[in-house]
Amino acid sequence: MNNPTSTVFQEKQSLLTSLLSLVKLNPALGFFALFTILWFIAPPTGLTVQAWHLFIIFLGTIFAIIAKVLPMGALCVLAITFCTMTKTLTINQALSGFSSHIVWLTFLAFLLARGFIKTGLGSRIAYYFVYFMGKSTLGLAYGLVTTEFVLAPFVPSNTARGAGILFPIVTALNQEYGSSPKEGTQRKMGAYLMKLCYQTNVVTSAMFLTAMAGNPLIASLGTKLGVDMSWTNWCFAALVPGLINLMILPLVLFKLYPPETRETPAAPQFAQKKLEEMGKLKSQEWVMLGTFGILLTLWIIGGHFEISATTAAFLGLAILLSTGVLDWDDILKEHNAWHTFIWLAVFLTMSNFLTEFGMIAWFSNHVQTAVSPYHWIISLGIISLVYYYSHYMFASMAAHIGSMFGAFAMVAITAGSPPFVAVMLLAVFSSLCAGITHYGTGTAPVYFGANYITLKDWWRLGAIISLLDIVVWATVGPLWWKIIGFW
Questions:
Q1: What is the DSSP letter of 78?
Q2: Does residue 4 lie within any of the structural domains?
Q3: Which of 30, 160, 310, 340 is the Cys-Cys partner for 164 at CB 3.0 to 4.6 Å?
């Protein structure tokens, strides 16, 4: 006689195999079938049906984003539709994320960044640093790193900053020195500079609340865990470990992947020529500089006058619109801003209600049981490393943050980690982890696609540099946060 248990197991295995085959043939249809089955399974003990259904919608959205079934914004619209049509969330609940000041701050920061690009101020700043620091390849490297650092607080799209402003300048410098993959001369200096600029891009993304589109979502989730993730706190916390990271990075990469050309005496002349072509600072650039100063001042001290970072951003945009630096067509054409506005609001909504419905607490309690035998330092180390290297599965920092940050941060805190240390460490790891692959964030395909570096070298260097980043932030970070009284 057949064993009934064995027969049931074989049937489930056959169903799973069929579903996986369906996913391979048609990801959209396969995912829909898989999550439809999950929908009708009773929720695990301790979870309500409402929490379980929201989690399935959330998880389905994440998987669909990873599989690139549709653009992220479109998938988030579908997620909101499923939430409301299935009565998992009311329409008011489903749209609550769109009223978040965090979402609006990110949206406004994208629009403000357009001013840097449109006026040419971003490129001018980069050429100035090349002019003053670019007499050697290493000096040139530090000039580009400094440019990234200066622009990071004001350009929230790391792709716009790295690919839109710096990449064309690095490409032009490589051409000036005859470093081209087409001619087999990529190792002259181009390969080194391309890899350095990308790795710098992910470090600067970790240093400011407004340096990467996913950071405001982290700030919102951190606030719900009792951690004040204001612009000022984030900046002060990240400044020392971030600057150390940026100072060491060019030297380490210089040893790991040395350029053949060590001296670049013509680089300052090249930058000077570009600056002469641009002419003197135009009136719109002066306005942009003034707005730049006002925003930085208000983001640092505005809290003392009850002026939030979002209010300051509205003021900055109002100045740019009223002075003609930006016009309304610029606002309408800023596709990345609108795209981010949609997905960030939806992710924030689902994350908030997963917390409210008890899903995150339920998950945290189970994981806490697994790490509870260890000291909180060991637990936080395990949690942080799993979170960091799980980014091999993600092509988007936002998707990674939305799917894992809240749960992992809560687990770390319930395991005994000081809340600020847990939240801030995972916050910076959310950006740094993108450096390990050639698809980790939107900037990666641009630099990798220039063909200066082989895939093998890109991944090898990314893995080594990830160890550097982790050591710096996991040691200097908590020590610095202790000194300034954050825990």
A1: H
A2: no
A3: 160
